[in-house]
Amino acid sequence: MGAPPFAETDLRPWRSQIKALLVGIELNPLVQRALLDAFEKHGLFAYTKLEPKIAVDELGRLRKTRVNKALEDFDESLRSRVISVLEQLHAIA
User: Is residue 11 classed exposed, middle or buried when 0-12, 13-18 and 19+ CB atoms within 10 A define those classes?
Assistant: First the structure.
């Protein structure tokens, strides 16, 4: 008999985890929500659309190309602050 099938674990972060990581960036609530919605739209949160392997590496770190794509509608200053925070916290590959 072969080994039983197993469900792959989704290593993407939850919305609340990304929100917590970005707490150091001062954002008004509308911008914060738009930012988190953009992450969700691009499949960067656990159990959202998009294949998990596309959004994160094998350690669960967000792929920088996917984060850049999610942030393309935001100004350069905000994009660079978000990327910087995620890099400092080793949450981005």
Answer: middle
Retrieve residue 31's tokens. 């911008």
Amino acid residing at 78: L
Alpha-carbon 39 to chain mean position: 6
Would you tell me how many other CB atoms lie within 10 Å of the CB of residue 2?
4
Local structure of residue 56 (DSSP, 8 states): B
Distance, in Å, from the CA atom of 62 to the CA atom of 35, rounded to the nearest integer, reads 15
Do the Cβ atoms of 67 and 35 come closer than 8 Å?
no
Note the pLDDT tens digit of each residue in 64-92: 999 999 999 999 999 999 999 999 999 99
